[in-house]
């Protein structure tokens, strides 16, 4: 490749205009920079004229993209399935607890109803017993009933 | 002249500029990144951007300087984006210094001269790697692209004095790496 001012490759400027004296090129530095320039130019020329591999890059990228999408789908499906299973399991557990509570409540209600019947029966017996008097005192009891009515 | 004719002339002119300057832009970006794929991508982006803004190019500087300025900005943006995306595992194809130093022009050299040249090239690469981004850009524009200080100043947006200062520091580091004056 030609240089801008027509110098041949590898030739370096001896110094930078109006620059500090320490930037005057010594032979070693000049040679090293010349070799560096030639090396970069050779590398650049070779890289510039190499066959392009854009199709391969695109294919690799699309393959990676497909794998990425597949993994993403698997993860999303797994998360969704896990969530649904957890929800279903919780609902079943809640239903079991609710059924147990209802059974307990109905048993309690049955017990309460049975207890109330017993109490009514006992109260009726007590009432009957309290109202029953011996046959000899029956006239007196009728008189007391008459006084209560008045 | 009709608008279509003017457009056709502008397109031809731009095509000529692409043809003549593309290798230099690519070479600068390759030396800056040491990554062939990245240099190609940035070169493409550079000319795409130049094409979009071709109508705004007023010719204050040469087309090469204008294109180089675009390339430098694209390169800066690239490194800035990579720094911001530090959490991403970004694959880099940058070659190491040994591989970059392997390239030497085929000339009539003895084996000893070739070894010496390769050592020197490797040392310059090492020194260039240790330069700041701005110093490296100035150094490469001067010693790879052989640009004048005024062109480097225009391309980088720095003053000529600053360009000289960057060059001075860069050369000091190269000289130190070569084992010369420190």
Task: Describe the model.
The complex is a heterodimer of chains A (150) and B (182). Chain A has 150 residues and is mainly α. Chain A has helices spanning 27-48, 54-131, 138-149. The longest helix of chain A has 78 residues, at 54-131. Chain A is rod-shaped and about 155 Å long. Chain A starts with 26 loop residues before the first helix and ends with a helix. In chain A, 7% of the residues are buried. The model of chain A is unreliable at 1-10 (pLDDT under 50). Chain B has 182 residues and is mainly α. In chain B, 73% of the residues lie in helices and 0% in strands. Chain B starts with a helix and ends with a helix. In chain B, 34% of the residues are buried. The model of chain B has no long low-confidence stretch (mean pLDDT 83). Classes of the chains: A mainly alpha (150), B mainly alpha (182). The interface between A and B is large, with 39 and 40 residues.
Descriptive keywords:
heterodimer; A: about 150 residues; mainly alpha; 3 helices; about 75% helix; about 0% strand; rod-shaped; B: about 180 residues; 8 helices
């Amino acid at each position: 490749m030609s240089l801008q001012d027509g110098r041949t490759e590898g030739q370096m400027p001896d110094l930078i205009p109006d620059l500090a004296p320490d930037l005057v090129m010594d032979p070693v530095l000049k040679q090293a920079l010349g070799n560096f320039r030639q090396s970069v130019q050779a590398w650049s020329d070779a890289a510039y004229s190499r066959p392009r591999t854009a199709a391969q890059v695109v294919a690799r990228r699309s393959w990676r993209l497909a794998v990425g999408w597949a993994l993403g789908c698997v993860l999303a499906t797994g998360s969704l399935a896990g969530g649904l299973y957890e929800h279903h399991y919780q609902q079943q557990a809640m239903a079991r607890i609710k059924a147990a509570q209802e059974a307990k409540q109905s048993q309690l209600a049955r017990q309460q109803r049975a207890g109330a019947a017993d109490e009514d029966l006992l109260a009726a017996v007590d009432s009957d017993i309290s109202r029953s008097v011996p046959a000899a005192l029956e006239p007196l009891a009728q008189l007391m009933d008459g006084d209560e009515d008045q | 002249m009709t608008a279509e004719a003017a457009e056709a002339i502008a397109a031809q002119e731009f095509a000529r500029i692409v043809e003549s300057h593309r290798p230099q832009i690519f070479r600068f970006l390759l030396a800056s990144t040491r990554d062939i794929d990245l240099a190609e991508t940035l070169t493409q982006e550079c000319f795409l951007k130049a094409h979009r803004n071709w109508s705004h190019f007023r010719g204050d500087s040469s087309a090469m300087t204008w294109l180089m300025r675009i390339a430098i900005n694209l390169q800066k943006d690239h490194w800035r984006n990579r720094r911001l995306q530090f959490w991403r595992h970004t694959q880099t194809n940058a070659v190491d210094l040994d591989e970059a130093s392997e390239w030497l022009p085929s000339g009539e050299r003895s084996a000893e001269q070739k070894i010496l040249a390769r050592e020197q090239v490797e040392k310059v690469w090492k020194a260039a790697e240790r330069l700041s981004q701005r110093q490296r850009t100035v150094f490469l524009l001067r010693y790879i692209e052989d640009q004048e200080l005024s062109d480097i100043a225009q391309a980088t947006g720095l003053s000529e004095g600053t360009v000289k200062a960057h060059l001075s520091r860069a050369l000091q580091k190269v000289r130190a790496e070569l084992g010369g004056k420190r």
